[in-house]
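Example 3.2
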Amino acid sequence: LGSAGNHSCQRRAVAREKCSNFLDQGTLKTQPDMKSRVTLYSAMLILLIVGIWLLKETKFFNQASPQVRFRDTTHLVLTHHAMCRMDCRHITRKEITEIITEGKVNYSKSELSKKGDETYAIEGYTTEEQHLRIVVSPADDGLVVVTCIDLDHDWPCNCE
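Structure, written as tokens:
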């Protein structure tokens, strides 16, 4: 295009940015070549795929937050010890569920420091006014009820 191209830009009052596309010799600056673009897009695609795979492998999409996991009573797993304590202390499964969903966490009796091995001590009153502490631990297959305690009455019990 040479100097004719430069004069043409001036005559048409084209913005200075458009004219700056010309080099000293009057040739247009070249856009990044196609090979560089393909390489860049390929690298971005690979990073995206690896990122999604890592999120999936760390169960990022499948895990509920700890606040939800220790309140989820859809699948309760009662330990042998918990069932024995329930029997001794006249605590029903319905009362266990009631305290888990509506009770308050006693953080001084809970152990939250170990990742994947945390326990939550949840306390509250049942509809029959029994003051209970239910200790639960979230697991992959449900919510494990570790034990249950009547906070107002010391029941005789022979659980091991």
